[in-house]
Amino acid sequence: MFWQTVALSALFVRNASAVPQAGGGNSGSADFLRFGCSQLVVERTDPLVNPGLLPSPHMHQVVGGNSFNITMDPDSIDPPKTSTCTSCIYTEDTSNYWTASIYFKSPENGTYKRVPQMANGRLNNTLLEQDGGLTVYYMRPFSGTKTMKMTAMRPGFRMLAGDPTLRSKSTKYPGICHRCLQKGDRVSGGSGAPCDSKDTAEFPNKPCPGGIRATVIFPSCWDGKNVDSPDHRSHVAYAPGSNALAGDKCPSTHPVRIPQVMYEIMYDTSGAMSDPKYFQNGKQPLVYSFGDPTGYGAHGDYLFGWKDDALQRAMDNLGKGCASEDCTKILKIQSGKDAIACTKAQQAKEDVGNSNWLTEIPGNIMVQ
After folding, report:
1. Where does the signal sequence lie (predicted)?
2. Distance from the Cα of residue 223 to its chain's centroid
């Protein structure tokens, strides 16, 4: 979890004393909101890139409000009104967050099994009460000691980070990366800011017995007009800087600062998946569900679904009753058990490879 050394980045904290400390609670005044979302469904749907298509080309894991469907038409679906539950810990968040699944390809016979996702850690070095899913951050940048004004997204807002066609390193998406965890990192998720020198844009080429932490960082600047664009990217932009988190100024074309969204997805690559025999001559056995054996094509989708002004209230109160994992003075929270209980049946029923070995990646995906 990057918050352990978040003081390395002036984007999130004013000074070292603001760093959240182990022990949980509202310790410090970290300028980000961090919470877990359990698995809602694993299926081949993608209402951003392939709206209305069932099934969509490749497998995704989805969390958030259970109004999620194949279109998510903003004219007919308002997640806070149409969702009856959310798999996220804050009940006012019925947004949907989704990423591609990862498959382990058996070097012995070429069959595939879906890599399970696991819970992330809390500040007090215990695991979040979470069934798979991912951890969501909403972050506020800083310039020295000056707070940057932020505007929460509005209904219908959606965006995409990353490019599934990439098979080599690209400077366009520096905030998408993977961290190889050792056994001792299992609960902490590894120290250090996200996508630093300990991370790689590609899949790790060595065993990761503590799992793999994948990070997806979204743009933090918005054109202030469009809630979407044809490519789901053009209406937003990253702040200028050397990486996705760097810089506190938005370009003139996208002058409105929005909360910066970040995902941490924890993949359980322990056991047989971390056998050293699978990592020789630069090879590794993992492949994304869209056929990417490199990892460079990792990406994430975001669809806003906060109720009323809940997200704006949380952002306005960061450091003032709302910090890191504790925003209960501002937002309504549910138990981990209730969040885990919020699930949705597959819209296109098929075996995703959780238990059974599959002869092919769902969708007859070719590895390339």
Report:
1. 1-18
2. 23
